[in-house]
Each structure stands twice: as structure tokens, then as C-alpha cells.
Amino acid sequence: MIHKKKTAAARPRILVADDDPAIREILAVQLARLGYEVLTADDGVEAAALCESERPDLVLLDLMMPRLDGLGACRRIREAEGKSGRRVPVLFLTARDSRHDKTSAALSGGDDFIAKPVSLDDLRARVEAALKRRSS
After folding, report:
1. According to DSSP H, which parts of the chain are helical?
2. Structural domain boundaries of the chain?
3. Can you tell me whether residue 65 is helix, strand or coil?
4. 90-94 and 58-61 as β-strands: parallel, antiparallel, unpaired?
5. Distance in angstroms (rounded) separating the CA atoms of residues 13 and 11
6. 32-55: string of b/e by CB count within 10 Å (b at 16+)?
7. Nearest-angstrom CA–CA distance, 30 and 27
8. What is the pLDDT of residues 59-98, one digit of tens each?
């Protein structure tokens, strides 16, 4: 399922990929309240395709999703970027918080790893920091 929240075009665009519809909706609402345009995908295959077609400014990926997990989606995103020269920040947002998961996320090309549940303040800080690093 591909879902777009309509907002002003000048706002940074964030792609949220999570197989749990409730989490997708909560994140979409929170991010929209923070002033971001939000796109959603329910698995890694859709996330990678949306990243290529919609060119978001940041991607939030769940680690465990059907069809293609977050690690595989991140690798696909990075492969596609190699052709275009563009690099989007990828933040993993997951209930799994082991050292192995953090290492795997980094090795797949992820920029940050956020453990669920995440507070709105922490989410805002991590997103703003990643977007700031991207533009500098």
C-alpha cells in the first residue's frame, strides 16, 4: 500500500516504511504535525521503489518487514543511489535493539538506528539532525 499525506511541496519529504499499519499511521501523523510531507510503504519492496520514484529527503525503515526487510531495502536504496549520485539519509526505527542489529543496519548503509518506542522529541531530534547533515 502506497499512501501520501498531502502537504506543501516545499516541506521535506519523509518516507516511512513499516508493515504495521498502526505504527505507519502514528508516525505519519506525528511527522506531519512536525511539518513534514509523509509517504508510506508497508514493506521494503515498496519502500525501495518509492524512494527511487518519489525521491524523499529522508527514509525511516522498520528492520523486520515482509517480502524485503529493512536491511535489504536499504541496500537496494543505496544501489540505486550509486547510479544517480544522490544519497538520502536512512534511519532504522525498530523494536529490535541488539548490537548485531545496529551493526547490520550500519553495514547495510543506514545512517541512524532508533529503538521503538520512540518519543516524539527523540524522533524530531534524529530527523532534524539527519536532514541537517544531508544539506551541509
Report:
1. 21-33, 44-54, 70-84, 99-107, 120-135
2. 3-135
3. coil
4. parallel
5. 6
6. bebebbbbbbbbbbbbbbbbbeee
7. 5
8. 999 999 999 999 999 999 999 998 777 899 999 998 877 8
Q: Higher pLDDT residue, 94 or 23? A: 23
The upper half-sphere exposure of residue 73, i.e. CA atoms within 13 Å in the direction of its Cβ, equals: 34
Predicted pLDDT at 35: 96
In tens, the pLDDT along 111-131 reads 999 988 889 999 999 999 999
User: 3-135, superfamily in CATH?
Assistant: Response regulator (3.40.50.2300)
Q: Residue 8 carries which side chain, given as an amino acid letter?
A: A
Measured in whole angstroms, how far is the alpha carbon of residue 91 from the centre of its chain? 5
Grid coordinates representing 85?
549520485
SS3 content of the chain, % helix, strand, coil (to 5): 45, 20, 35
Put the strands of the sheet holding 13-17 in their side by side order: 3-4, 37-41, 13-17, 58-61, 90-94, 112-115
Take residue 38 and report the three cell numbers written for it: 509523509
Cell triple for 124: 524530531
* CA within 13 Å, CB half, 104: 15
